[in-house]
Design goal:
This protein is mainly beta. Helix content is 9%, strand content 45%. It contains four helices and 33 strands. A five-stranded antiparallel β-sheet has the order 1-30-29-28-27, with no helix packed on it. The chain has a four-stranded antiparallel β-sheet with strand order 2-33-32-31, with no helix packed on it. Mean pLDDT is 82; it is low at 1-23.
Length: 385
């Protein structure tokens, strides 16, 4: 009995000790990364490390970098990396769909509802539950048009419209389809909702459902413009969904390559696009023909950045590579120690490259955020002062 009693006390002490020990971050996050070689044609302007993971790729709006963690939206100055403001979601988490902005206002969704924020300082202009009567009502997708914010509920699959001035609900249309991961855009007074392999069309003014089409295309992470819808297989008319361009596959371009499709999202360019997959990086023209391919010494991650005449690629070995956008030749590379992707928490989509006219922003490890500028651009140097 005494032995059992001693063992019980010892076990209790061990459990208590483990409960009181503070959380220790992985070594990959506590070790500062040093640049050991750098021949990139752009300059590292700033770097910061977050205390939470980034759950999706960053967004650059005006002079702000928007970062999405599980609990908040953080806005950094694109020129310096300093935090400008933060919006914390009360009793909820941010949703995955892209936010939309207009006239210095950003509209975002979460499982706590919708919110309108001032892009300048993060002031909450209004917020409201997506739908009443639900403990959680996750936003599947949102878009903006003509004074209205349109949203889809991933919980009920309903499609809704709200007034951007005060957040009041204007209409709601019940749907039976699974709307998780929906993407929305307004064309010619019609609201198009892309979900799964279907597209649903609504009257944007009244919410009346016009029709639904089952076209056998997977729309998750597809890119769209007012006229075109870009999938990993080709380009479709955004209104009729008729095919416009079929992409030449890496296997067609080089029979030794086993890859047939491309990862999404694609990086659109004025005269074509950049695409990537486990076989490499590809430059395609407007007709969908491959102009060049780059394999490198490691697989690229999902996103490719197009900046200053070069394509910038983040590889899974942690290197950033600069490629001439016309030839695909490597023109520069940055390596760090430890490697930039030494800690692999989060999805690949939460790491990537995105740019505006004067800056390229990169997210690594889902924690590290770096900003680059073009030292050759006089206009950009003047703008950053």
């Amino acid at each position: 009995m005494k032995l059992i009693h001693v063992l019980a006390i010892t076990l209790t002490l061990l459990l208590c000790t483990s409960c009181t020990q503070p959380y220790s971050p992985p070594a990959a996050l506590t070790t500062r990364r040093a640049v050991v070689s750098d021949t990139l044609p752009i300059a590292l302007a700033w770097q910061t490390r977050l205390d939470q993971i980034v759950v999706r790729a960053p967004i650059v709006l005006d002079n702000l970098v928007l970062l999405f963690t599980p609990e908040d939206l953080r806005a950094l100055d694109v020129n310096s990396g300093t935090e400008q403001w933060r919006f914390k979601v009360e009793h909820g988490t941010l949703s995955m769909p892209l936010p939309v902005s207009h006239d210095n206002v950003i509209y975002i969704g979460s499982n706590a509802g919708l919110a309108a924020l001032s892009l300048q300082d993060g002031t909450v202009l209004w917020k409201r539950p997506l739908q009443d009567g639900y403990k959680q009502n996750i936003t599947a997708g949102i878009t903006y048009s003509a004074g209205r914010v349109f949203a889809v509920s991933a919980t009920s699959s309903d499609v809704l419209a709200f007034d951007t001035g005060n957040g009041m609900q204007l209409w709601r249309t019940e749907m039976l389809n699974n709307m998780r991961g929906a993407d929305l855009q307004v064309i010619d007074d019609y609201l198009y909702v892309y979900a799964g392999d279907k597209v649903h069309r609504f009257d944007a003014r009244t919410g009346d459902k016009i029709d639904s089409l089952d076209v056998g295309i997977e729309f998750a992470d597809a890119r769209h413009t007012p006229d075109r819808l870009y999938t990993n297989r080709g380009v479709f008319n955004a209104r009729s969904l008729q095919p416009l361009v079929s992409f030449e596959s890496p296997h067609d371009f080089d029979p030794s390559m086993p890859c047939e499709g491309y990862w999404l999202p694609l990086t659109l360019a004025p005269d074509g696009l950049f695409a990537s997959n486990k076989c490499g990086v590809y430059r395609l023209n407007e007709e969908g023909k491959i102009l060049w391919s780059y394999r490198g010494n490691a697989t690229p991650t999902v996103l490719v950045g197009d900046f200053g005449g070069n394509a910038y690629v983040l590889l899974t070995n942690g290197a950033i590579v600069a490629l001439d956008r016309d030839t695909g030749q490597e023109v520069g590379r940055m390596k760090t120690s430890p490697a930039l992707l030494g800690h692999a928490e989060g999805e690949l989509a939460s790491r990537g490259l995105i740019n505006n006219n004067c800056s390229l922003v990169a997210v690594f490890n889902s924690y590290d955020v770096w900003g680059f500028t073009d030292p050759a651009s006089t206009a950009c140097r003047a703008k950053s002062k």
